[in-house]
Amino acid sequence: QVQLVESGGGLVQAGGSLRLSCAASGRTFSSYAMGWFRQAPGKEREFVAAISSSWSGRKSYYADSVKGRFTISRDNAKNTVYLQMNSLKPEDTAVYYCAAKGGVVTTTVGAMDYWGKGTLVTVSS
Predict the structure, then answer these.
(1) What is d(CA 15, CA 60) in angstroms, rounded to the nearest whole number?
(2) Model confidence over 28-81: pLDDT tens digits?
(3) CA dist 49 to 20, 22, 74, 124, 125, Å?
(4) 106-109: long-range contacts, CB 8 A cutoff, minimum separation 24
(5) Were 25 and a residue from 3, 21, 38, 115 both cysteine, which residue would form a disulfide, CB within 3.0 to 4.6 Å?
(6) Parallel, antiparallel, or unpaired for β 80-85 and 60-62?
């Protein structure tokens, strides 16, 4: 069982930056692929970024809409995954969720094993 707790959301002006953190419980954090997803009001949850487990080389993956602006990283010593968000746009406004998956990294919402409760990011124009 893995418990995930997100933090770092808030209100920011367009063009600004935020860093989201996701603290995970459990001793096997390094073996999980981790992902960030978001859900805007009235829309389906969508993939944002993912990072493979340490055993798979910590490869990162991004949605086209955030590529070049967002960076995912992980610190296994702290059981934490981060999402650095730069050049934020109003369309980035959403609840951001951290998720974990044992095994191979995926960008599919339905394939994740564990979810946090989310943190709200609001980008004003």
Answers:
(1) 23
(2) 898 999 999 999 999 999 999 999 998 888 899 999 999 999 999 999 999 999
(3) 12, 13, 12, 22, 24
(4) 106/33, 106/35, 106/50, 107/35, 107/47, 107/50, 107/61, 107/63, 108/47, 109/37, 109/44, 109/45, 109/46, 109/47
(5) 3
(6) unpaired
